[in-house]
Structures are given as structure tokens and as C-alpha cells.
Amino acid sequence: MTEWQVLWNQVAALVLNLRIWFIREVLRRPSPEFLSAGDSTTENHLRCVAAQIIGPGGVDQVQAYNGCWAVCGYNVMKEFGSQRIESPPSSLRPDLVVIRNKAFSVNYADICIRWGLYESALRYVGWPIIPGFDIAGEIEIAGADSGFSPGDRVFGCSFFGAYASRVVVPHWQVMKMPQDMTFESAAALPTVLLTAQHAVNLAGVPTLIGQGHFALVHSAAGGVGDMLCQILRIYGLTVVGIVGSQSKVRSCKANIVIDKSHEDWAKAARKHAPNGYRAVFDANGVATLKVSYDLLSRSGRLIVYGFHSNLPKCDGSSLGTLSPLHWLRMAIDLARTPHFDPMSLTLDSKAVLGFNLSFFSDEIETGQKYLSQMQEWIQSRKIEVPPISTFDFSHIRQERLYGLSNPQGNHGEDVKELYYYLDATPTHSYMKMMYKYPQAEFPYDELRRVNFERKKDPMLLEYELLDTGIMDDDKYFDVVVEYAQGEPDDTLVQITAYNRGNEEAELCLLPQAWFRNTWSWSSTSKRPSMSYVPDQRRIEILHEKLGSYNLYVDENTEVIFCENDTHDARATFGALSPYKESEPVSQNETLKELGDFRVLSAAGWHAIHRRFETRLGPAPDGAQETGKDQGYRFHLSGRSTGHFKDGFHDYVIRGDKAAVSSSGGTKVGLLTRHKVAGGSHVTARLRLTHSSKSFDRSAFADFNMMFQHRREDADRFYMFLQDDIHSEERRLIHRQALAGMVWTKQLYYYDIRTWLQGDSGYPKPPSRGGRNEDWDHLYNLDVISMPDKWEYPWYATWDLAFHCLPLALVDATFAKEQLRLLTSERFMHPNGQLPAYEWNFNDVNPPVHAWAVWRVFQMDRKNRGDAGDLGFLEELFHKMMLNFQWWVNRKDAEGRNIFQGGFLGLDNIGVVDRSQPFPNGGMINQSDGTSWMAFYSLTLMRMALELALNNPVYESIACKFAEHFLLIARAMTRVANNAEHGLWDPSDEFYYDVLANPDGTREPIKLRSIVGLIPLFAVEVLEPDMLTKLPRFAGQMQWLFEHRPDLASLVSRFEEPGRGERRLLSLLRGYRMRALLKRMLDPEEFLSDYGIRGLSKYHDKNPYAFGDGPPLQYDPAEATTIIMGGNSNWRGPVWFPINYLLIESLQKFHQYYGDDYLVEFPTGSGQKMNILKIADELSERLIKIFERDQDGYRPGMNLHPKMKEDHFHENILFYEYFHGDNGRGVGSSHQTGWTGLVAKLIQARGREDAHES
């Protein structure tokens, strides 16, 4: 190439850059589409994906390309005619290899290529170009003379073309990877290490310069600088490294480090080497080149391998295009760059040498020598891999909390961010939460990759955010979000971000408001509007049904808009969805390579398939898991241009001004950019009001005062509520538990008919595989208490029943409405079944709804101080009778009052999947299913008795449920006059599930689990005055016990009054209750320091196997087997709902037996307590999970040493369940729902303490 051609390339780069700058920054025309399919005829599954630069300019000139089979460097282009290889060659040249690229690195040179300033790229490839030097992957095809085999893990260099998923290179450019090296680490090494090696070689090390000499390295903490320091020290030189900030001093590997941000680097360098340096390595250019030359000693060499100070720095508000001002500065710097004439070099006895590694394609012998040396250093651990940051090829800034799905997580689905619900009033007049935001890039890929790799060993713990080390130096923000209600339709929002680190850090805050998109799929829905009025600093919001509102913004806020519409060009191939439909969606290889298309794991799919086989079609093959989510198509906007919902990302991250509007849209972002000093904080404020509200002055004039009032209101509310709770520690736990209950309310919208039939104007969707198709009456559009708004953003009926007790502490009206809602005609099935949860409404959960109705009625009555809400009780009683009949008709297959139930919420409690038919055609008669029904019968009996006090009609209904309870009691016990095997095993003195075989034989499944403790729940105590007031019921019960002694002998003696003339109905006679309590209170069985375990610890050393199935063993924490998704484990951990019911049952037994009835506690200790004291002790053990211990940890949060530090220990997570031995939180980390029962326990213990004092 001639000098004129080089000059022409530079002029062309200038002109094209200015053209792109004018189009993007001045005209603000949109960027080209990111994905280019090309016109290749290669089949989709054979195509590679590459990132190409279509011409000089900003980052918007980078485009994904999938129109070829593979990519090569310029030194192989003659073989194929182009950098893009359209199809697989019929025969591969013997010295070439085809690499399935797994990772590549991003180098500063790639940015220069994008600007058109990299000579070799223009000379040998031109536009468009696929850049990139470093490759790391697996050999896919090996040439005959390459010395490699398919499957070999290799890394090395390509002379451009590395930004691709399949690369063809000569064999000498790659080498085998060490076994313990990751692809990411391997891709970070070749270019920087080879550049450093050649620079050291040019400097004459070690032939001319060796031990005892000084060498100076600029940018010593950078990629090449890091390698230079390590190599020079290997050869014995004393290395002085120059870095640009204090944070880089610690990571620099030089012998002596100079921080030029704090001292004059030239003076410091002269002080350390008064006689000068034999070698100086400079990639800065004009900023340091002259001084670097002056610092050389006689015979010294200045090695120049870059010139980054000559090039512009583009801020984050642009697309990285070069403006005319940038070109002017570059011209000035070029004129200022020192020139070294031969005479001066000779007289000074110095040398200046420069090089560019991209011209080394013909230096095969030198390249092989360098690679061989590099391999030796890596294997001998002489070279340390520099710190790296990894980026997913499809990286998009997240707009919601990040977590892993079942196939990705090593123990099921799990949110991977840290956030806390700190405060809330039941009216939502004040709410507060906190989010911990790392100052480094969030490690999305590391969390996904490591957790997925840990699936290989189920004993490994989940890999959490703190495990990545991203917060080790307190380099994070505590982002506190507060809401306050000024009055109805006046909401104040304050966001305060605290920099917990010691150094200044940048932060972008982007609160958003948007309209839910209903216009794209409903012909009757009109598009709403938002528009900005700058002089009043408000956004005017208009909706045809909601009315008009104003959103006021604070000073220094940049208001940006887009439309809440799908960007079709980015979504054509599918969208993320948490569901798995009737059969696996076919994979799109193009986006699978990008990471946008994600595939359900085989193991996860098989686990789901076992459970829903008849509705999910054929089972999948055993394909390798990918750790990626499954993709599904969603609604498209039908528009090719406009400001789409991903526009905020394009603007904030890419600087694409054309992606957003400044005037209006249906989604608004309120952007502020901050530099927050260490230990300091910044605040953003906004206020949403109805348009009818006006302000005499600013909308923020009374803002601080209003917030202060609402905080004080919240404090007064909890001061009254916590009057009996004297421990500050317990007040904190109690308040945050209740805050979580209020925060996890959520609008839930599910219209089954529309979901099945499709939206108006759209074709009917394919079959949903039978799931929920028989629930076409269901229409949910309600605010509902969720178990966890991340992991379970949908209601679960038996979870909700437990939620209502802590909710009733602060908002009994809402708790009652929640219970009523689930029994309404829009929820309950016409046959009486309650919907289980969205995944499968037909699943069967424990029948606890009636119990929750009764308990909430009691709590509300106590607070009201009257007879209670009898209308609520009566309405729900009738609904519960419908549900009871559904249970009797559907779950008692043989009509013998022995119930199957199935899943019953206890995912993996059994040795077999209880929701599936037994292989031999038998049925599992479940101890818990039958006990739950006995519990259900007694609860309905008690509700009927309460109603009978006001309406005698209910007396006979109460008698009917009492009789049903007695019949269930008979069925659960071996009956003397026939061969039927009951559920009570007299030899083991425990309740077991029993397999009923088709030939009539019965086999007990002798597993000691909480299934055998659930009979304790079926207990009811009747006060003597009630029996006096209800003579008809009392007489009928007396007749039953006199004329049916067979029934009377099965339960505790109703006819024998206990303490205070009370009467007892229970499944357990005295000796059976003692037998169960003996096991339950044994530390070697069920009793943990933190509550009652789900499975006896006996099975830790004595695994139980049934038939040919695998043995079941005590697992105190995460599940080690995948059943029902594997994200919940009942085989050993402590679960709050079961523990709470056990405590209430013990309290009822004490009401009857009194203080004189003593039980050994713990079993084997010789110490005896009455039953109430035991219930209190269990409450204390559960509460202890959340209290700080002597080491500063809360047992439930003892997952990382940082959890006991300031800004962590006072913020509490409410996990789904807890380790059976040490109390550590397990599963979903924000399932405040039923774990929120700890607030009810604390409240009860506080009142008991106050009573005793």
C-alpha cells in the first residue's frame, strides 16, 4: 500500500466519522438494527454469530451478523476470498483449525478499528470488518497437520475475526489450555501477553538487559502493563510502575508503584533510578513520550506500543462518535508529538522502537516461540492471569431484579440481588425499602455460570452475590426508596443513595413511570399520553379511565420518554418467560449463541414432566443443559420505527439520543447523574398528584415536612402495636416482618378465557397442554398477598391462608377480604375446589383455608371487642362446606375416610412423587391428607358452633362435622375386626403413609416425617359454657359416645372434662400423643435448636428406601434430589407453617390438660415441662432464627461474614425455610408470607411476657 493510499484511508475515516456524527448527534436519526441476518444460504443451525463494524463511527456501527458459516483473520482470507466464510469447505487446509469460540477479549485497538484509525485493519480487510484478536474455545474441525483433535480446549490469536462464534486460524496461532483455566481467563491473555513479550524482546531483555537494571512501565495496572511487570520481574529487573489512581496501586505488580494522581510521576521516577532506566515502556503517546525518552539511561531503549493519549475520550452521553472538536484535538496532539532524529539518538546512545502486533501474521517462527514461552509461564504459575470483567454477548441492562430459573440455579429458582423491606404502614401511608447496588458491573454471567456449574454437585451451596466479592470493600450503594401519602392521589417518592465505600463513585438514578401496555392487544383501549412541561418541571399524564395526573420532578433532572412498545426488531425471535408450555420450543441457533434464546434443562424438564406427564406431551431427550432461560414469543408492536421500551437502555448505556424523546410518550424516565463522595449520599425526589391539586409554591415546598409526618405516623402506629414487646431486637424483627407482608401485595391479572383463546384481533394460541383449561371461569384482577414478589409473583392458596394471620395484626379488613376473595365465584371452581396456584390450579394444597378464616375471625373479634364479624364467618363457612364436599368426593377414592390428597404442598416429603399414580396401580393413603381432613372437620365444627350461638340451625351442622371427624379417626387406626391396615403403626408408635395395592394388601411407608406429626393438628377444646348454651349439640355428642363406643375409644375422652370442665376432641389419646411428642421433641429426631424439622434426623444415619427406589436421607438444607423442580426441600429443614400449627395445637392440648400434665423436654434430658411451656420454647426457637447471636450473626442470615457488619445486620431477610441444624435461611430469600408468622409469634410472646411480669 502506498503512502497516498494510507493518506486516503485516513481522510476517508475522517469524512465517514463526521458523517455518522452529524446523522446521530445533530439529525438524531436512529441507529441501524443490531441484528443483520445477511443473505447466506447456510442453514440456521450451522451459522455462526459475529459482531461486525459496518463503518467508522460510534458504537452504533457495531452490528450482530449471522450470515456466514465462520470467520477468519486476514492472513487466511486468500484461502476463502473473504473474512466471512459462507459455507463449510469440502476439505480443510491441513494446517488450519476451526474453533468454536467460547470467549473473546475487548482491546483498545478494537475501538481504534471502529474509528477507522487502525492501519492494518484498513489495509488488509476494509469495511465491514469483524474485529478481535483473542480467542478461546474448542476445536471443532482439525486440519490433518494441525496436531489438534476435535474437542481440544485451545486459546490464542486471530488477526482480526475473533468477535465470532466460529473462527478459522492456522494451528500455530493457538495452543492447548490448562485444565483449570476458564475460557474467560484464557481469552484475556494472548494479545496482552504477546505484546508484552515482544516489547521485552525489543528492549533487549534478557540478552542486553538483565538483573539489577531498572525498567519503567507506564499504565502498569493495565492489561499489557500488568504483563510487562510480571515478565520483567521474571528476568530479575527492578520494575517501577506508574498508575493513574489510588485504587490501582494495590493491584499493580511492579516492585515500586508511582500514583501519578497524587505525585509528580517524573520526579518520583528519577528519584528511584537516578542513573536512568535501561528500558521504558510507553503506550501513552504525546502526554508522556518526551519525558519517557529523557528518563532513559545511556544505551536505554524506549519501547512504544500505543498512543492512547493522542486519541479522544468519549463520555457516556454519546455513542462514541468523533466530533469535529475531537478531530481538531487529535490534529493538535499529532503536531505536538515528539520526533526523534537519528543524530540525537546517536549522540544520546538511546533507541526508540515501536511495533504493532497486528502486522505479525508472517512472523510464524517468532510467534511460535512466544506462544511456547507463554504456555510454559502459565503452566509453571510464573504468570498470573490479570483481573477480568466478563460480559455476556447479549448483555442488556436489567430493569427488574435478577435471578435464576430452576434449570439455572443449582437448587432451583432464586433471586440474586440484595434488597430489604424495612417499613410500611397498613394503609401504605409510609413505605420504605432498601436495595444494595454494587459499584462494579453486576456479575450477571458469573452468578448464572457458577450456579449452573454447581448443579453437578447437589451438596454445594448456592452462589450468591456476596460470594462474588463485589461488595468486599464496601463498594456499593444503599439505595433507600421511600413513599409517603400526602392525601389520596398525592404520592411523594424519595430515593436516597448512600455510598458505603471510601472512594467517589458514579451513579445514575432513573426512576420511571409507565402505562401498562393494553393498546397493542385491545382494539378498545386508547393509547394514553405523557408530556413534559419544562417551565413547571412536571409531566402531564392522561388516561381515558384513570384520569389526569401530574408528575413533578426535582431540579437537575433530565426527562426522557419512550413508548412502552415492543421493539420488534429485537424481539422477533422470542422473549423470556417463566413458563414451560406443552413441548419444548425449537431452539433458534442464532440467538442461542447470543444468549437471547434460552433452553430449559433436561433435568429440570424431566422433573416437571414426571409430574404433569399427561398434560405436557412426550418426554424430552437427555440433551445437555445450557443454563439459559427458555424463550417465547410475545406481542409485537407492528412498528419498525419509533422510541421503543428499550430506548432508555440505548440512551443511558449506549448514548443513543435518537432512542428517546424529550417531549412525550407512554413511559418516562427521570435521569440524574451523580458523582457521590465516599461516605456521602445523594437524593432524588418526585411527586405524583391528581391534576386537580395545585400548589401555592413549589410541589416540593412541603415535601420534607410531609415525609417527616408520615415517618412519625409509622413510629406511633408501631409503638402502639408493639406496646407489649420490650426487646428492641424483637421490635425490629416484628416491624420488618410486617413491612414485608405489606410490601408483597401485588396486582394480579389472569383471565383464563383470554389466555386460552387469545387476544382480540390475534389468532388463537396453540394448546396450553391442558394446563388450567378446566378453569375457564377464573378471572383474577385483584390486589393479592404474594408469597414472594420475585420468585412467586402469583398467589398460592395455602400460603395466603398463613399470610392472613400476620396481616390481621395490622389490617384485619384486608386479611378477611383476601380469604373471601379465594372463595369468590371468580376464583373457586364450580365444583368447590380452591385454585392452588397459577402453575397448576388443579394441584391440591392442605385444606387450611377454613382454619385461617376461623383464626382471623378470632383475632379480629379480640381487637374489636365485640361478638366479631359474624357475617364474614357465616359467608365463608358456607363456602368452606362446598370445598369440604369437594375433598370428600374427589380425594377419598375408596369411600373409607382415608384420603389421598397427593402433593399437598410438601414437594419432596415422600419416597415417591405423591402427585403421580403409583406404578403398580396402587394408591398412597396419606397420613397427612387424612389428618388434614380431620383437622378440617374440627375447624368447621368449631365455626358452626360459633354461628349456632346466634342461629340454632347450625347446631345440627356442627354435629355432622363432629361425626365426620370420628369416622376419620376410626379409619386412621387399625380396626380389630378386619384386615385393613390403618395409618397408626402400634409397633413404631407413629403415623405412616400406607400403600394400598390393587390385590388388597397394605404396605406402610415407614418414613419418619412431619406427615406423621400432622395428626397433632386435629384437636379442639370446647368451653363448658358453650356446651351449656348449645344443649342440642351436647346431647347429640353424648348419644354418639354412649351408642358408638367403637368411635369413642379412638379419640381423647370427650365425655371426661379436663381443666375447668373443658372437653377435648383429638385424634390422639393420651398414650398416642405422648408417643408422638417423644419423637417430635427428641434432638436426634425432629427437635432442632430452631424448631421442628421436616424429617427425622434418624434418617441421617438410617436412609429409608421403599421398593426399588433410591434411599431417602435427611437433608437439613437445600434439596439434593430434584423433585417438583428441586427448589423446595421438606426432608429436614424447619418450615414456619407446620411449626406454627404445632405450637397452636400444643396450646390447645394445654387448655385441656393444664399445668399438671408434664412431658419430657427435650426427650432424654430428664427435664419435664407442661405442654404450654413446650409450645413457648418452640416459639422461642423459631424467633431465635432472626435474633443476633453472641457472634453477631442472625442464624437465618449466616451465609456470609458480611452479614454481621454494619449496614447489613440490621436488615433482615425472611427465607422460605431454614436449615434443620443451624437455622441458616434456605430457598426464596423474601418469602415474608408464611415466614412472616414470626411477627405473630413475637406478638404473642410479648403479651405473654407482659402478662407474667
UniProtKB/TrEMBL annotation:
The lineage of its organism: Eukaryota, Sar, Alveolata, Dinophyceae, Suessiales. InterPro entries: 6-hairpin_glycosidase_sf (IPR008928), 6hp_glycosidase-like_sf (IPR012341), ADH-like_C (IPR013149), ADH-like_N (IPR013154), ER (IPR020843), Glyco_hydro_63_C (IPR031335), Glycoside_hydrolase_63 (IPR004888), GroES-like_sf (IPR011032). It comes from Durusdinium trenchii. SUPFAM superfamilies: GroES-like, NAD(P)-binding Rossmann-fold domains, Six-hairpin glycosidases. Gene3D superfamilies: 1.50.10.10, Medium-chain alcohol dehydrogenases, catalytic domain, NAD(P)-binding Rossmann-like Domain. This is Enoyl reductase (ER) domain-containing protein. PANTHER family: GLYCOSYL HYDROLASE FAMILY 63 C-TERMINAL DOMAIN-CONTAINING PROTEIN (PTHR10412:SF10), MANNOSYL-OLIGOSACCHARIDE GLUCOSIDASE (PTHR10412). Residues 81-401 form the Enoyl reductase (ER) domain.
